[in-house]
């Protein structure tokens, strides 16, 4: 039956780390498409699945463009979470994870129906299990867009967005600007054509196959394949409608967003800074370096900083009272532009390593001049400082905290006064702050190490060049004499 998983198609394997069970569950969605759900369990279970009454947290991972559970960064994230006692399931995109396309529908950068069906399926099958979600790259765009579309109705308790492109139209303009970006663009287009080739019988019937084969950029591929299959009028129409930046204002679950300002694919120009400030549920963390899904740590680049930061955020969220709880009533989708961008306090990561909440609201600050406050020993300031900035959107007391009257709370943060709000804010932010401190130290050491390596490996060449240059200069005066 459509919408029910094919439990007969459970494939045990050894894709993950030793002593961790890995099984694949093939889930059939309503339109007949097949999604590969790759499970990584923290406990040794005989049947390969968790019980319906299990309350162990479950992290749903949505990979990036043309990536699946075999990608190195997805393995790293899944094993990091599972090694700490959580269960993990990777929701692969259609046509990836070793499965074929079984319907006339393909995934794209804004296709949220598959994530919605998978999360609802997991929630109904494991009603006592807290669900968390992590999206990477284009998967992060899909996750944020889904959360904005669902609002209070999502069963997700918390989420993380890693290196999201945010605005696909701005990203398209950015990736065609300079030589380095165009190289990435061409490389991604090659990956998309490889994905298309895996499913040529279906795509050749639905889209412009000759145009797909000649595509040299993501935009050309989207023109010949994505827009045709998904029935978008133009590529720009597809980019505008599928950008998660337009849905940020309606996100109603605690959400950590991590972006590197030097990302060669997802430009800082697309980050919805003001919309994230206005939404009390969003933590926006930006670092000056990190690239795209990189943030490498150690001399051998054996670890990814964002994996630790995202997992620590979700673990701290699970241990607090700030987890989102699904509301039973329907919701209305609101645009992220409807809310005021100056209502909420936000947090700056200062040079001395402190995290300082900042707000223009409050007594004695009606004129908008810089003010200093102190909460729990942390100095608050309106000034933005430091090399790395961590912004946290968080409103004052919400008058609609218990407006539905059904006794349920969507996001319990900021509901019990300023003192409780500050404690909860520090409780959630502390792990991320520690991770950013650690990243800053690693970056400083790496710069000096690179300088040392550059000097050691190039001093002979530089000495030879200097000798040749000075020898010519000395020869010319002697010849003149």
UniProtKB/TrEMBL annotation:
Residues 355-422 are annotated as: Disordered. The chain crosses the membrane at residues 447-470. Residues 60-298 form the AB hydrolase-1 domain. It comes from the Eukaryota. Residues 407-422 have a biased composition (Polar residues). Belongs to the AB hydrolase superfamily. AB hydrolase 4 family. This is AB hydrolase-1 domain-containing protein. Keywords: Membrane, Transmembrane, Transmembrane helix. It comes from Urochloa decumbens.
């Amino acid at each position: 039956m459509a919408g029910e998983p094919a439990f007969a198609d459970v494939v045990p394997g050894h894709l993950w780390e030793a002593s961790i069970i890995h099984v694949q569950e093939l889930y059939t969605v309503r339109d007949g498409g097949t999604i590969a759900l790759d499970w990584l369990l923290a406990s040794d279970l005989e049947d390969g699945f968790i019980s319906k009454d299990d309350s162990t947290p479950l992290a749903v991972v949505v990979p990036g463009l043309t990536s699946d559970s075999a990608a190195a960064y997805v393995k790293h994230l899944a094993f990091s979470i599972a090694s700490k006692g959580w269960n993990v399931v990777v929701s692969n995109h259609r046509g990836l994870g070793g499965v074929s396309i079984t319907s006339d529908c393909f995934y794209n950068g804004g296709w949220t129906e598959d994530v919605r069906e998978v999360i609802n399926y997991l929630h109904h099958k494991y009603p006592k299990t807290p669900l968390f979600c992590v999206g990477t790259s284009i998967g992060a765009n899909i996750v944020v867009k889904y959360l904005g579309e669902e609002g209070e109705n999502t069963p997700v308790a918390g989420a993380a967005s890693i290196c999201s492109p945010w605005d696909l139209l701005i990203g398209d303009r950015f990736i065609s600007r300079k030589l380095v970006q165009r190289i990435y663009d061409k490389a991604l287009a090659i990956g998309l054509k490889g994905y298309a080739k895996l499913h040529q019988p279906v795509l050749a019937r639905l889209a412009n196959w000759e145009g797909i084969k000649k595509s040299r950029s993501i935009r050309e591929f989207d023109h010949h394949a994505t827009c045709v299959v998904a029935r978008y009028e133009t590529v720009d129409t597809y980019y505008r409608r599928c950008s998660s930046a337009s849905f940020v204002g309606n996100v109603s679950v605690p959400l950590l967003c991590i972006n590197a300002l030097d990302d060669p694919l997802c430009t800082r120009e697309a980050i919805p800074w003001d919309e994230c400030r206005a939404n009390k549920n969003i933590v926006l963390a930006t670092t000056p370096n990190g690239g795209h899904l990189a943030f490498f740590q150690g001399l051998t680049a054996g670890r990814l900083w964002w994996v630790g930061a995202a997992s620590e955020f979700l673990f701290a969220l699970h241990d607090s009272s700030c987890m989102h709880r699904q509301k039973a009533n329907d919701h209305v989708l609101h645009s992220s532009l409807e809310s005021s961008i100056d209502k909420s306090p936000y947090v700056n990561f200062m040079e001395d390593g402190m995290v300082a909440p900042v707000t223009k609201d409050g007594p004695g600050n009606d004129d908008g001049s810089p003010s200093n406050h102190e909460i729990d020993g942390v100095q608050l300031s309106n000034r933005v400082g430091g090399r790395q900035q961590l912004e946290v959107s968080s409103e004052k007391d919400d008058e609609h905290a218990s407006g539905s009257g059904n006794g349920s709370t969507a996001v319990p943060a900021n509901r019990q006064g300023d003192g409780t709000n500050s404690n909860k804010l520090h409780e959630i932010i502390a792990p991320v702050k520690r991770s950013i401190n650690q990243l800053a130290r690693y970056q400083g050491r790496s710069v000096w190490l690179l300088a040392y390596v550059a000097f050691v490996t190039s001093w002979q060449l530089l000495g030879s060049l200097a000798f040749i240059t000075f020898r010519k200069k000395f020869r010319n005066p002697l010849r003149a004499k």
